[in-house]
Amino acid sequence: MGIGTRRNSLCDCGSGKKYKRCHFLREQEAPLPVSSILEAERRARGRRCLHEADGTCRAAVIQAHTVQRALLEKIAVDGHVYGFTPGLGSFLNSDGNLVPTKVGLSKASTFTGFCGPHDKKIFAPIEDHPIFPTKEHAFLLSYRALCKELYAKLYVSKMGTTIKQLDRGRSQAEQKALQNFADGYLGGAATGRRDIEIHKRKYDKILKTRDFSSVRAVFIELSTTPHFMVSGALFPDYSFSGETLQDLSDQAAVMDAMTFSIVASGEKGLAVLTWLESPEQRQSPSGRLADSLAEIAPEHLADALTRLTFEYFENTLISPSWWDVLHEQQRSALLSRMESGMNSLIARHANSLAPDGVRVVQYTARVLARLV
Asked: Which residue in 285, 304, 289 sits closest to 247, CA to CA?
């Protein structure tokens, strides 16, 4: 096809525009400034109360903590913890290197996904009182983590136009590679958003009816305050023993979801895995992941929780006094795990949760309760 004919054809990038109004001479355009990316991220993050599903809440949205500030104070140094800043802008600003940065407790693990009244009312049982191994408390930890995950998926969907412009000033071969990456990344994010929204509707019903019968959870007690805290959701793909739990590449199927939290509890810590499972349902992928964790010998359980955390969750808040004294090799191993979870180009392997010889925590763990 001659260039004249191609100019009036639809662009190969899938924008729906004619080639002449889209990628024609794209290699001569100025690269997209990081400042423009940061501004697009600011707009994409938005402010919306995710209480239930109708979107009718009109109260003022706040910076809601996924991990309570009072708990984070237990691992903070001078009012700061280490955290990972998600987003394209921070990735480019760090030249593609994944490094934890200091963040103040007022901003650590926050998202603008709840209004003040709903945040206070919904989570009062676990914020105003100690967390106990009950289905209600497991559900509330899980609901907050799931809402944070939905918030992140909504952000990605709003960044599509900006991500598609990252090939400005690149060669045609680089343009094609970047567009293929964008298509895969945005397509996967859209599927993930669909699945999270399906699970969110189930959670909304439980929140409304207070029927916790479908809630499943494992509570694990840590012998001391943990070195890091986390709140997040995942689609389990492999167990700790290397079993394939579900095929995440199957975009036609709705993936089973689980949430995971590690928080301080008095002078100790709690790790909580939570998922939903109906009585008639055969054991779910989440249930099998929990079983494989419970089978690990107690002396290795804390290390397994560390692998799970850094393999899957970017919303991890770290004690600087612990991180700064780790050997460089230990930090690199943990960051490699974190990168595999945040970079969609890195394929996760079946033995990703298997022991790797990295032992970095100074506390022990034991299964406290399994709620079925």
From this structure: 285
